[in-house]
Amino acid sequence: QVHLVESGGGLVQPGGSLNLSCAASGFIFEEAAMSWHRQGPEALGTEREFVARISSSGLNTAYSRSVRGRFTISRDVTKKTVLLQMTDLQPEDTAVYYCKASGGDYWGQGTQVTVSQ
User: Fold this and answer.
1) Residue 48 DSSP class
2) Tell me: the pLDDT tens digits for 1-54?
3) Which among 83, 80, 77 has a CA at the least distance from the CA of 57?
4) Residue 112: enclosing H or E segment and its boundaries?
5) How confident is the model over 55-65, as pLDDT tens digits?
6) Strand 34-39 versus strand 95-101 pairing type
7) Which residues of 51-71 are buried (b: 16+ CB within 10 A; e: fewer)?
8) Measured distance CA(66)–CA(111) in Å, rounded
9) What is the Cα–Cα distance from 107 to 17, expressed in whole angstroms?
10) Positive or negative: CA dihedral 59, 96, 46, 87
């Protein structure tokens, strides 16, 4: 059974940083591409916005235009985790962030990130 658990969200001021983590289990982690998505408060009921993706090998990454240069995705095969390092956070980054594994409709429960004074 695929299980994804996100953590690391919280409240941060504009310009601040947060590191999100996604712990994976129930599948062969080394064979799955992983990605982060988000859903902001004004986007409830709509499709989650793509944020970043990392290939199964970890050699290839991709970012949305809105986060490129500020966010970094990585993976730790030993710990079976996917990390999202977020810097220079802005109010528009406020959202619930979700981790996703390829190969099916596998999502975590999400972690809230709030950027506010």
Assistant:
1) P
2) 899 999 999 999 999 999 999 999 999 999 999 999 999 887 666 789 999 999
3) 77
4) strand 111-115
5) 999 999 999 99
6) antiparallel
7) bbbbebebeeeebeeebeeeb
8) 19
9) 24
10) negative
- Tallying the residues shown for the chain, one arrives at 117
Q: Give the C-alpha separation, 56 to 40, whole Å.
A: 27
| Whole-Å CA distances, 105 to 12, 18, 50, 85 | 30, 26, 14, 24
The angle at the Cα of 57, spanning 97 to 67, to the nearest 5 degrees, equals 35
Q: What share of the chain is helix, strand, coil (3-state, %, to 5)?
A: 10, 50, 45
What sign results for the dihedral spanned by CA atoms 69, 58, 19, 48? positive
| Two structure tokens written together for 116 | 């506010």
Location of structure tokens 């977020």? 86
First to last CA, the chain: 40
Q: Is 59 left (phi over 0), alpha (psi -120 to 50) or beta?
A: alpha
